[in-house]
Design brief:
There is one protein chain. This protein has 334 residues and is mainly alpha-helical. Helices cover 46% and strands 8% of the residues. The chain is built from 15 helices and 8 strands.
Length: 334
């Protein structure tokens, strides 16, 4: 299948990402400029579409230069500096491609103001006058609205229905499907006292079910699998994907899944009885630290709060340690 048809993409000058946010601070929910209106429409229709950030960087990045057709009336030098200042703030190279959702999470988290980027306190010449709206507070007002003003969150009714349907499917399944690393999350929740009903996922219900039915088959699945993650507000059903961390939780979670599989010596599709699977997990993963820790600092797409906490604590998540001991007794593994 042609990737362009499968994954329609968008190419943007970096400054246009700030323009989208700025326009949201002007009042209407949709920008007035035709170009920005079209950009926002495409992103709202496909929040995870790949966005390439291309600009006139020159030097070794000349291969992706866009030309000056999209320059604003200020000087060529102002236009180049503005784009490069934005990329530097985002810690991205010219030509970088990332999902729209991730891009706007990074922009809103990393760039608190348009001042100093789109305009300057000291205007040294007409060539550096900057955008007249940049000092008006529009960007800051748009930023305060958050990503929900750009990308609509999942509806409560939809998630509640998905919770009901996925639980019914789980209880009736010959083999319950679950992505590998959240087997550890379920232990952390259990150790922390989380019990059904639980709105954001089906892990507490999963644990209660397998405690009563320890011979239940569990199949290791790839991605934010529906049976466990259906009601999660950070799940993208169309992609079976997780967008819980700056819109890119899938990266950190995919690595955790693979780390768990490697430690356990298993693969996607491996199927075991629940009790035997947790016996293996508890034998080989005594602490969450090595699997879950992350040393990347925000706003890295590899960062998440759980990873940072596991890096700080040499014992990993203490709720895992507590839940592990509780479940070992419940499953009669000791």
């Amino acid at each position: 299948m042609n990737d362009e048809k499968k994954y329609p993409s968008l190419t943007l000058r970096p400054y246009l990402a700030l323009c989208v946010v700025c326009s949201l601070g002007e009042g209407p929910s949709m920008p007035q400029e035709e170009k920005l209106n079209d950009v926002l429409r495409q992103i709202r229709e496909n929040p995870d579409m790949p966005v390439a950030l291309r600009c006139n960087a020159g030097d070794v990045y000349v291969y992706q230069d866009r030309g000056i057709a999209e320059d604003t009336p200020e000087s060529v030098e102002f236009n180049r500096k503005r784009d490069l200042d934005i990329l530097a703030a985002l810690d991205l190279a010219p030509g970088s491609v990332l999902p729209a959702r991730t891009l706007f999470h990074l922009v809103l988290k990393t760039i608190p103001t348009a001042r100093g980027i789109c305009c300057y306190d000291a205007v040294t010449s007409d060539a550096w006058r900057g955008c007249p709206r940049a000092g008006s507070g529009c960007y800051e007002k748009g930023r305060e609205k958050g990503t929900a003003a750009i990308i609509s969150p999942r509806g409560e009714d939809e998630m509640a229905k998905e919770k009901e349907k996925s639980l019914a499917a789980m209880y009736a399944a010959e083999a319950i499907s679950i992505r590998p690393h959240i087997l550890l999350c379920a232990v952390c929740q259990y150790g922390g006292g989380t019990r059904p009903p639980f709105k954001p996922d089906n892990l507490p219900e999963f644990i209660q079910h397998i405690l009563k039915n320890p011979d239940t088959l569990v199949a290791l699945a790839e991605g934010a699998d529906w049976m466990m993650c259906a009601p999660c507000p950070r799940r993208v059903p169309e992609l079976n994907a997780c967008v819980n961390v700056l819109g890119s939780g899938g990266l950190s979670n995919q690595k955790r899944d693979l780390d768990v599989l490697q430690v356990l010596g298993l693969c996607y599709g491996s199927t075991m009885k629940a009790k035997d699977l947790y016996r293996l997990i508890f034998e080989r993963i005594p602490t969450t630290r090595e699997v879950c820790r992350r040393q990347n600092l925000p706003p890295s797409v590899w960062w998440d709060g759980c990873g940072e906490n596991n890096d700080r604590n040499p014992r990993g998540n203490e709720n895992y340690e507590k839940g592990r001991e509780m479940l070992k007794k419940e499953f009669e593994l000791i």
